[in-house]
Amino acid sequence: MEHNEYNVKIEAFEGPLDLLLHLINRLEIDIYDIPVAEITEQYLIFIHAMKELKLDIASEYLVMAATLLAIKSKMLLPKHEDESEEAFSYEDEEDPRDELVERLIEYKKFKEAAIEFKSLEKDRGLMYTKPPSDLSEFTKDTQIEKSDVDVSIYDMLAALQKLMRRKKLQKPLATRITRQEIPIEKRMAEIIDQLASGGRKRFQELFPVHDRGHIVVTFLAVLELMKRQEVHVEQEQNFAEIFVTSQKGAGKVGNR
Amino acid sequence: MEIVNWKGILESVLFAAGDEGLSLKQIATVLEVDEIKAQGIISEMQHEYEKDENRGILLVQIAGVFQLATKKEHAEYLKRLVESPGTSHLSQAALETLAIIAYKQPITRIEIEEIRGVKTERPLQTLASRALIKEVGRAEGAGRAYLYGTTKEFLDYFGLKNIAELPPLPEKIEDEEVQAEADLFFEKFNEL
Amino acid sequence: MEIVNWKGILESVLFAAGDEGLSLKQIATVLEVDEIKAQGIISEMQHEYEKDENRGILLVQIAGVFQLATKKEHAEYLKRLVESPGTSHLSQAALETLAIIAYKQPITRIEIEEIRGVKTERPLQTLASRALIKEVGRAEGAGRAYLYGTTKEFLDYFGLKNIAELPPLPEKIEDEEVQAEADLFFEKFNEL
ipTM of the assembly? Predict the structure, then answer.
């Protein structure tokens, strides 16, 4: 069952923090010592790529881009460490990255908790229950529950949830439709081939198939190839077209 | 040699199938054995349930399907269960029934039972006696079965102005969510 | 001397109660024993179900009630009876939102959005319609924003006895963890 290749979950990032964590993870960066210039560059490439694909970018992503640029410029300011009269105030000056790191770590905690929840959800899904039996034969017809109704709409919805969970089993045997997964390794090899024959390609040319799954896999394949330095992605200026070129000598795909 | 615990597996599937029960053919299919083998496992289990006094359930065959049921001699405890004041709110059965009626009205008892997979007379009775539901007409066709719907009391009780104010059904939302949210930045691609 | 077959009786009433389950108090009332005795019978049965491979069910305690459920290791057989899951899995957005609420309740939407860094209206709607969260009050201050908390269904959905059983929230993020972290973007489909 376990494929060693990446299988892509067709879901986007949960927001700029999620995207940053993703980049930090992929670039194998220490979260407590983020190279702001590098991460900002990667982040902006990502944003530009989205733009290139004419996709809507939620405003939160742009706010984060601005935040990164602001931190980057603060980091570039001279530190004045030599000026003794001011030294004391810079000793305990805050690192411009602190607030961002704090947010990332806070978010990461819950992201991990969500993974935990997911496994609990899956685990619970392995247990099947049965509906309460009809016990009307044990009651006299005249006897009706007399107590006051003391429920909210939540109780009703909760009952419906239980029912739906149970219903899983009561449908007839039938085949299930499974989604086709596209291995990222395969798509990476295709892209390399494509670039080998045609040299420099416009980024958009790499997306011939208008299928979500295919688009996401292609996107990830390009990112992975960038990381492995098998392709080079360039953009002459902001919002200009993005070009992808094969790096010389990198013919082999699939080995890490 | 690996021993498959047929009895344990059969108990699992029968338990989950509930009042709907399973035919011999279904049991054989699920267990991936032939029907003779399946019948053998069933008979063995029937025997064990019966003779073991620490068991509260039986494996019975009703109208061609096999299902689990409580032992008759425990009826008095079940009666006590029904009569126990335990809960001051509507039973799970009543709430499920109410939810189905609220979202699917007008609906017949048979249709409700198909969804719940269990007899639903009593929950209907309870709900009607509390004026949360009422008969709103008769279905077309042979039986001319009663159709049920929710009442004004139902709306009052749950603080709703009208039935359209019910929260949307989860699956619907989930679908929309998959469309609108899961693919935050790929959603516009179709327009290209 | 007449011996009462407590275990058989308990199995009967739990079977009948189905997924509504029974509280310790209800079990004691129906069996006409005190709660300590009831707990003793329950524990004994839990043990027997677990160790006996010819049994397909378990006695579990979820969301404050005891109920019978099939053994997890038989899920593959049960899946053969399934057409499609009745309820869809929660999206990543919904799971994150739920995690924040579970650990920080009561909490407002704005506070959740500050942690996630994105708008969270939709996940909140999904979670509420699935009865996993509810409004538990209003915050002090100008907006008097709604405060959210988790529900009993939340415990049921994740198979938790009570809120104290939540897995501890990671307090410190270790460096290695950053590397080893399961990258959701590349997470496998296999879990479906």
Answer: 0.77
Chains adjacent to B (≥3 CB pairs closer than 8 angstroms): A, C
Environment class of B84 (CB within 10 Å of its CB; exposed 0-12, middle 13-18, buried 19+): middle
- Contact between residue A72 and residue A34 where contact means Cβ atoms under 8 Å apart: no
Tell me which residue of B68, B82, B168 sits closest to B118, measured CA to CA: B68
pTM for the full model? 0.72
Strands B133-138 and A201-202: unpaired
CA gap B185, A212 in Å, rounded = 11
Contact list in B for residue A130 (CB cut-off 8 A) is 15-16, 18
What are the two backbone dihedrals, phi and then psi, of residue C96, each rounded to the nearest 5 degrees?
-60, -45
**pLDDT per residue over A204-256, tens digit each?**
777 766 565 666 677 777 777 777 778 877 766 555 567 778 875 544 444 43
Judge: C126–B174 Cβ closer than 8 Å, yes or no. yes
How many whole angstroms separate alpha carbon C138 and alpha carbon A206?
A: 51
**How many beta carbons lie within 10 A of that of residue A254, not counting itself?**
10
Apex CA C145: angle with CA C140 and CA C151, to 5°?
105
DSSP assignment string, B113-174: HHHHTS--HHHHHHHHHTTSEEEEEE-SSTT--EEEEE-HHHHHHHT-SSGGGSPPPHHHHH
